[in-house]
Design brief:
With 114 residues, the chain is mainly alpha-helical. Helix content is 34%, strand content 0%. The chain is rod-shaped, with a radius of gyration of 47 Å.
């Protein structure tokens, strides 16, 4: 007895079979390349990171475009406020000592030894 084989390769799909053998099966829905993961830090977190890396408060304020007092608040730095000292009304002040009367301009000068 003799045997024979039937091939399903026809000229129309022979090209597809050859291409599939070289590259593998085509994906139905190709997955897009994932975008790079990024995190947007808040201005306060950026200030803290810059401060930990050794930046000065004024340099941080400049790079963030914020005021120094804003950066101070991000970093939890308490600022002191200078309060000017004022003298109360003259009525509350100690009485001034009376000055000795001035000598007339034509009076003779006398040296006193003591």
């Amino acid at each position: 007895m003799s045997s024979f084989a039937i091939s399903l390769v026809t000229p129309s799909n022979a090209t597809q079979i050859g291409a599939t053998a070289r590259t593998g099966p085509a994906q139905a829905n190709p997955t897009p390349a994932p975008e790079e993961d990024t995190v947007q830090l808040s201005e306060g977190a950026q200030a803290e990171a810059l401060h930990q890396s050794g930046e000065s408060v004024s340099a941080i304020a400049s790079s963030l475009g914020a005021s120094v007092s804003t950066v101070d608040s991000y970093l939890g730095i308490a600022t002191t406020i200078a309060v000017p000292l004022t003298v109360g009304p003259a009525a509350h002040a100690a009485p001034a000592a009376k000055a000795a009367p001035a000598a007339p301009a034509d009076a003779p000068m006398v040296a006193v030894k003591g």
